[in-house]
């Protein structure tokens, strides 16, 4: 063998050896795979994953071991559920290592269906501007809440059957849109119709594409799939409705007209300019739809879920109603001080969320680089990790007697407010309903305020019960790692008798 051939073989061999060593060092550590016996259909994974995660939690996570399970979005990339000992390292990892937006992009195949990405601008607008503006937005939010209840809930001096979820969704959409897009579009019926229906269209598009297209062919869906074309149409409609408002807002800035707006259109313009991006109607509209998607359904579903629990716990309902009336009387209506004094309500909402949290898993991240944890456990770049939120909420080592609904579990003595350990929007080692770390839900304080506003307003005005005697909270419904309260069950509603409530004029 001459020297040239030998050198060539050595170079090729060395290259393969290096590649092999890199693969080994970036491969995930071995871990158990948890799967269903028998029926392994997509539908079963979408509806019953809670059972798998419960099994993995008991058999592995509690022993400090991660496990993997099937990913219905992409079978070649199993999901990895991690034990709590890795929570700190994941939630504190920088965005360029562990990304929530990129995880969502993969999970909801956002690029294939034309859905809104979780952009830095959108997150900044929520994390910084919305939270800064919350104190002075409260008055407007309360007025919108009352107007929504007045206009949308039909007269019901006798017990009247109502499907509450669509009503709650409409009320939240009105309150939310006023905050997101301001007065011009916040009252525009076309915009309200678009934002109210957008999430459902996007989910339909996502589900169709996941079910019918192999991952490598999903890019074609925007040309072929009817449900995806609907999403694109809505995207254009959003940009068309927002365009003139954006133009007027930008003109007002150029002409230095007094700017009295404090809403997400302004926050996004500021953020786009700060980061040197051109402000375009199409992109601002996508961000607004992204915020709508994150904000409206979650919040409306949380109110419905809490209402079911309130109906099941009439003694707590009386306490909370009494507390709400006192707060309104004492503080002259609902304002920040009144909301902060609703300790029974806060504890009840937190317990309801613990028992019926919507996300099955949270702190979901896509590893953008290989990662080695403190004890040597490795994950490869491209791994999708998460933590078992609902199982944690039902873990007896974390919450004693976890299957008992304890309305006062999170009640702290109002006299010792400085020591208050928990509130609805808390994130901690024990509570990851809103995620954790840098990506922890930035809209949770807004959600907390709106949910309290609406519940307090409803409870001082109405009574609620199930149509059937002895009926209890209906079983929750699961879909792809999200668990919803059952939205198909009507409740009976009746206005409380006048004179019964000192603040009846509030509505
Ligand atoms: C009860 C209602 C809500 C629940 C249960 C909820 C839950 C969550 C969860 C679990 C995350 C991921 C956090 C993580 O992985 O660490 C998240 C992120 C997010 N949420 Fe919420 N959320 C709610 C309401 C809202 C509202 C009202 C808004 C907007 C006004 C909002 C905006 C966002 C945004 C922008 C992100 C992405 C944050 C980032 O990537 O840094 N959410 N939410």
UniProtKB/TrEMBL annotation:
CDD domains recorded: CYP503A1-like (cd11041)
Key words of the record: Iron, Metal-binding, Monooxygenase, Oxidoreductase
Superkingdom to which the source organism belongs: Eukaryota
The keyword Transcription belongs to this UniProt entry's keyword annotation: no
Name of one Pfam family that matches: p450
Cofactor: heme
Matches recorded under Gene3D superfamilies: Cytochrome P450
Coiled coil segments of this chain: none
Similarity remark: Belongs to the cytochrome P450 family.
Protein name: Cytochrome P450
Organism: Apiospora hydei
């Amino acid at each position: 063998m001459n020297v040239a051939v030998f050198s060539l073989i050595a170079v090729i061999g060395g290259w393969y050896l290096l590649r092999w060593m890199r693969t080994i060092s970036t491969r995930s550590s071995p871990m158990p795979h948890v799967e269903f016996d028998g029926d392994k259909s997509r539908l079963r994974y979408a509806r019953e994953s809670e059972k798998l995660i419960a099994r993995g939690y008991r058999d592995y996570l509690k022993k400090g071991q991660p496990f993997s399970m099937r990913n219905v979005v992409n079978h070649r990339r199993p999901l990895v559920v991690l034990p709590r000992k890795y929570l700190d390292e994941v939630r504190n990892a920088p965005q360029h290592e562990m990304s929530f937006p990129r995880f969502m992009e993969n999970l909801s195949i956002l690029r294939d269906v034309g859905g809104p990405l979780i952009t830095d601008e959108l997150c900044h607008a929520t994390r910084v501007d919305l939270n800064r503006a919350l104190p002075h937005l409260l008055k407007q939010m309360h007025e919108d809440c009352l107007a929504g209840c007045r206009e949308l809930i039909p007269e019901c001096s006798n017990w009247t059957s109502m499907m509450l979820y669509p009503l709650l969704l409409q009320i939240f959409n009105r309150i939310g849109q006023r905050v997101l897009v301001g007065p011009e579009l916040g009252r525009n019926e076309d915009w309200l119709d678009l934002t109210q229906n957008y999430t459902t269209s996007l989910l339909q598009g996502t589900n169709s594409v996941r079910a019918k297209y192999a991952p490598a062919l999903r890019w074609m869906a925007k040309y072929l799939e009817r449900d995806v074309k609907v999403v694109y149409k809505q995207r254009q409609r959003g940009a068309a409705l927002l365009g003139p408002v954006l133009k007027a807002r930008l003109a007002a800035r150029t002409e230095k007209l007094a700017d009295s707006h404090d809403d997400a259109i302004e926050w996004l313009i500021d953020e786009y300019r700060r980061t040197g991006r051109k402000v375009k109607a199409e992109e601002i509209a996508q961000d607004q739809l992204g915020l709508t998607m994150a904000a409206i359904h979650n919040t409306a579903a949380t109110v419905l879920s809490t209402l079911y629990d309130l109906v099941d716990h009439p003694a707590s309902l009386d306490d909370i109603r009494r507390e709400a009336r006192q707060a309104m009387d004492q503080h002259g209506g609902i304002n920040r001080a009144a909301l902060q004094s609703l300790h029974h309500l806060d504890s009840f909402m937190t317990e309801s969320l613990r028992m019926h949290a919507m996300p099955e898993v949270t702190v979901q991240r896509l590893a953008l680089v290989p990662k080695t944890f403190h004890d040597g456990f490795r994950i490869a770049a491209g791994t999708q990790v998460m933590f078992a939120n609902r199982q944690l909420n039902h873990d007896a080592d974390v919450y004693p007697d976890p299957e008992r609904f304890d309305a006062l579990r999170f009640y702290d003595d109002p006299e010792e407010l400085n020591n208050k350990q928990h509130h609805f929007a808390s994130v901690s080692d024990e509570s990851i309903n809103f995620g954790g770390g840098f990506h922890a839900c930035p809209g949770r304080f807004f959600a907390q305020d709106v949910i309290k506003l609406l519940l307090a307003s409803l409870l001082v005005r109405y009574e609620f019960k199930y149509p059937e005697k002895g009926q209890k909270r209906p079983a929750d419904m699961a879909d792809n790692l999200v668990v919803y309260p059952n939205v198909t069950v009507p409740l009976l509603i009746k206005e409380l008798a006048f004179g019964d409530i000192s603040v009846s004029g509030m509505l």
